[in-house]
Amino acid sequence: xxxxxxxxxxxxxxxxxxxxxxxxxxxxxxxxxxxxxxxxxxxxxxxxxxxxxxxxxxxxxxxxxxxxxxxxxxxxxxxxxxxxxxxxxxxxxxxxxxxxxxxxxxxxxxxxxxxxxxxxxxxxxxxxxxxxxxxxxxxxxxxxxxxxxxxxxxxxxxxxxxxxxxxxxxxxxxxxxxxxxxxxxxxxxxxxxxxxxxxxxxxxxxxxxxx
Length: 211
Known about the structure:
It contains six helices and eleven strands. It has helices at about 15-25, 40-50, 65-75, 95-100, 120-125, 165-185, and strands spanning about 1-10, 30-35, 55, 85, 105-110, 130-140, 150-155, 190-195, 195-200, 200-205, 210.
């Protein structure tokens, strides 16, 4: 059983999707710890209700981002993770942290990368008059939201969509594809090689799989 550590900052809905997938044996792995930079993040409650160890590492206790990430990495390493999953973790990671987990760290981002890295993706898609939006699961590299894409799910933008309605439809797809990608990784089918995502021994295209 592969050991998974999850980092969160908020409500943890993607964390819950992963917890549920593990419980259904759809992921051949064990979430051994959940970390948060926010003490009252509801995702910590979700983890505790599932019997998963939790730990809060608060930024204000550290002099700078480098010191914080070094301490967080040491705490994560105590669980000997095979995979580190970012599930709504809202801090920008230092290159040192990213490189420490190169090839074993995944993130989910609510846009069809490379479109709209960063924040406010739903608003930006609506303001630009896009006809479709979506979500991307990718490996984490030093470039913000720029790592190799594994899987994307497309969501049509419909008339009278708001940020809230669009976000809710995107989130449905998040909860579907993130556990799937994690399962590929823990089953040994998905790897990162030479800056690219590989599936079943073959490199994926720049856009990864489309779902």
